[in-house]
Structure formats: C-alpha cells, structure tokens
Fold this sequence. Notes:
Elements: H1 5-11, H2 15-54, H3 64-107, H4 112-117, H5 120-135, H6 137-162, H7 165-213, H8 215-220, H9 224-276, H10 282-300, H11 302-307, H12 309-325, E1 341-350, E2 359-367, E3 371-375, H13 382-390, E4 396-401, E5 404-407, H14 418-423, H15 431-440, H16 444-448, H17 467-480, E6 485-489, H18 497-510, E7 515-520, E8 531-534
Parallel strand pairs: 3-7, 3-8, 5-6, 6-7
Antiparallel strand pairs: 1-2, 1-4
Helix pairs in contact: 2-3, 2-6, 2-10, 3-5, 5-7, 5-12, 6-7, 6-10, 7-9, 7-12, 9-10, 15-17
The structure holds adenosine-5'-triphosphate (ATP).
Amino acid sequence: MRELKPWLDLICKRPGRLVMGGFLILATLLSGIALLAISGWFITETALVGLLLAAGVAATINLYVPGGAIRLFAVSRTVFRYLERVYNHDTVLRLLTDIRVALFRGLSLASRSHRSELTGAQWLSRLTSDVDSLDTLYLRLIAPTALAALVSVLVVMLAAVLFDLQTAMLVGLVLLVAFLIATIGVYLRTRHLSAGQSDRQEALRTAVVEHIEGFAELTAAGRTGKHAAGLMRQAHQVTSEQAKADARIGWHLAGAHLLINLSAVFALWAGFALYQAGTLSGPVLVLLPIALLGLAEAYTMLPDAFGKLGATVASATRLNRDCRASQPAVHSGAVDLPADTALLAENITVKHAGYAPLFKHFELEVQAGERLGILGHSGSGKSSLADTFAGVLPAHGTFACQERVYLTQKTVLFEDTLRANLLLGSPAASDTDLWSILEQVELAERFASEPDQLDTWLGSAGSRLSGGEARRVALARVLLNPAPLVVLDEPFTGLDAETRARIAKRMDGLLDGKTVISLAHGPDALPGTDRVIYLSR
Ligand SMILES: Nc1ncnc2c1ncn2[C@@H]1O[C@H](COP(=O)(O)OP(=O)(O)OP(=O)(O)O)[C@@H](O)[C@H]1O
C-alpha cells in the first residue's frame, strides 16, 4: 500500500470533487434502496387492505403519499445516477491529467540510460494501462468501498430503529462478513495472480510489438509461424490466468450476495416474530428485508475492484520505480554560484550508470554572458557532458549553474501543431513572437504558405518536416526560452553551410546577454564563441 500512497495523495488534491462525487453515488444508492423499500411497503399495505376489504372489514389506504414517494425516488435515482456518471467521469479525466502531468514531469528527467532500459512497448504499457489503473482508483475502489460501508451502517441503523437491537446486531454481523468477503478476502485471494497478470500482459504486449517490428526478418528466416505459435501460447496463458482470477472474483461476489440475501431472509423471519408479538405492522416488516436486497447493488462493484487491486499496486510500483530512477541529477556538493558565474564544475566525474567514467576531475567555470564552444570528435563525450550541464546526468562532484535550457543532439518534436511545439519554449509567447522567431530561423515563409500556418500539424516526431526544418523548429523553441544559460548540442545538424552561417550570425543578437555553451564536432558547426575548448580522451 506504500506504493499507492503518492498516487492517493495526488488524487486527494481535489477533496471537494471527491466528496461531491461520493455524495452523488450515495444519493443514487439511497434513492434505489428507498424506492425498493417503499415499493415493498406499499405493495404489502395495498395487499393487506385488499384482503381486509374482501373479508368485509372497513379499511382505508393513503395512496398519495407512498405513490408520490415512489415517483420521487424513481426520478431522483435516475437524475442522481446521470449526474453521478457525468460528474465522476469528469473527475476521473481531471485525475488522469494530474497523474499524467506528475508522471511526465518525473520521466522527463530520466537519464538517457534509464530511458533506453525500457522498450517502446514497455513505455507504452506504462503510459496507458498502468496510468489507467491508477486514474480509476477513486471511482472503482475508494468511493464504492466507502459508500458500501456507509450504506450498510445506515441499513443496520434502520434495523435497530424499526426492529430491535438484536436483529440489528445480527444483520450487522452478516453484512460485515459479506463486506470482508467482497473486499479484503478477494484481494488476499487474487493479489499474486493479479500482479503477475499485469506483468504477463506487459510481456505479451511487448512480444506482439516485437513480432510486428521484426516481421520482415522473421519472414526472411522462415520463422514467422513458430514465433506466432509462441505468442499464441503466451496469450493462452494470459487468458487462462485471467479466467482463474475472474472465477475467484465471481465466487466472492456470489458469496457476498448470498450472505446479503440470507440477511434479508433472516430480517423477514425476525420481522414475523415481531409482527406476531404485535410490535410491528405488516408493511413496516417488509421494509428492512427489501432495503437489504437493495443493498446488494452497493456490493456489486467491490469484488472486481479488489480483484484488480493487486495489478493496480503492481502498476503503481512500476511507475514509482521509473519516477525514482528519473529523479533529477543529485549534485553531490552543490555550491552557491559566485557572482558573474553561469556554470561552475569542480572536480566532477561524468559517467553513465554502470559504465566507466568518461571524464574524471573535470573542471570548468563559465562566466555569465560568455559564449563557450566545446569541440571533440565523435564519441569524445560531448553529449554526455551536455547532459551533465543540463542536469540529465548526475554530476558527481561540485557543480552549480544558472537556470538553463537544453537543445539535445536528437531533435525532439511532439505530434502536435507548430504553435504547440514552439509554445513549450515560452508558453506566454504571442503569435507575433512566434512569427518573428520563425523568421530568424528562416521558417516563416515555409509556414506562411501552409493553409494552417502556426496550426500546421507536424506529424509524429515532426515527421512532416525535413531533418533540417525539424532542427530549426527545435532551435526556435530554445531561442524563445528565457532561461539565462543555453546549452546547445550540435545546434545545426542537418543544415547546409550557408543556412547554418546565416542563422548562426543572427543567433548572436538573439542570445544577447545570455550565456551559451555549444558543443559540436568542428568550429564551423558552432555559433559565435568567445572561447573554445577541445575534448580529448
Ligand atoms: N546511455 C549511455 N550508456 C552508456 N554509455 C553511453 C551512453 N551514452 C553514450 N555512451 C558512451 O559514452 C561515450 C560518449 O558518448 P557521447 O554521446 O557523449 O559522445 P559525443 O561526443 O556526443 O559523440 P557524437 O559526436 O558521436 O554524438 C561513447 O563511448 C558512448 O558509447
């Protein structure tokens, strides 16, 4: 349960919505129970009055009050159910946003090595099924459990008021056992199965994606059938384990319902005794058994939710592990920056986790406003150094720097519009700002001729742009960012020499007053510099 805590804390950040949503579910449940109980009472009353009249005894019945109450609860049940669905699903979508934002915030800091530890299919599974199982935690698990407990207590109180304390205690005891069977009982019997199931499903998804990705190679090697047969076996295991878990959930649901029905039969039997003793009228007698039957609705969702709790905990554990692995680089011995210094590295070690250090005892001081170029051949460690400056790789040693913006060597664009991609650099930028920066990177004309202009869709990872265009969009995004320190890793990849020279010249003005560290293979791939250092291994 420790694993669920960070996500529960996140969910509890909207207490008002959770209480309101819970109230709407409660109102729906109580309307349903009241509808059943009053209908039962009314049917019994009319039957008894009918019998009396048939026997020639004068009897009257008030049709209007119970008739009105039945209509009221029939309508309120429908209205509350509708409002509950709309409101709570809206809440779930808001929670989904919170969870995704928290997760992306954590994962955006993931080191390159951690990112590459997981396959694409595993990331897909983290961001879809793992997140889904957490965002419905409130609606599937927390609210139904709390409300089933609350409504059970109300029904037991009803038993104490209408019947007697003894009946109420016995009904309470049976309901408690039913509650435990439908919740903790299911969880204990399915948690391993359910947690393993989510791992197996992830493994199957990964295997299917790999099968599709490697289809050409499998076909060339004549192994498609054999590989597919392996997948089928894996899928069969997943479904048979699922069937096993579902059967357990089903038995617990049946057990809980059986107990609730037995408590209704018991209430009827106890009611007859009170009726015979003259302490209870016939119509009131049926109120409690029928309310108990109505209570079954509150228990229906519990076994399924608790049967999947094991998988939910497994999802939370995986996401927590990824977020922990993605904690921002811890700078052992962080220091305060001296005045007029933009970056200070003293005796730092640059290394990828599990690999030998690339640099030891690395020293660098960059003055505020300085333009530093770092040159080195392929594999000399430029990107690793840039990652360290940007805080993506931990700097082991004394390290401090100003707030920075980082242009990674690999161009990263999102499947969205040009505007949305640019606004990541400066969310408050106006259209005029965006056009002006596009002008500087020589893309204004290109997008002005598009029908959607700034709203042009860039495609998956900017696939509708050429490599050089995509690079310039990424560069524009960095140039829009107000951070005082700019780290540029191979800023002009994919640009021809003339374009590169023109943009580099303009960048001098655009980056005026900022500190710039640019890394590249050769001097012609750098914007203007005051100082250049060479990396040698
Ligand atoms: N995630 C990683 N895990 C382990 N080793 C890595 C990782 N990334 C890079 N390296 C290794 O670190 C060394 C430096 O790589 P880096 O990408 O920093 O060099 P670079 O100078 O930027 O190269 P290039 O100019 O080709 O991009 C290489 O030997 C590379 O194999």
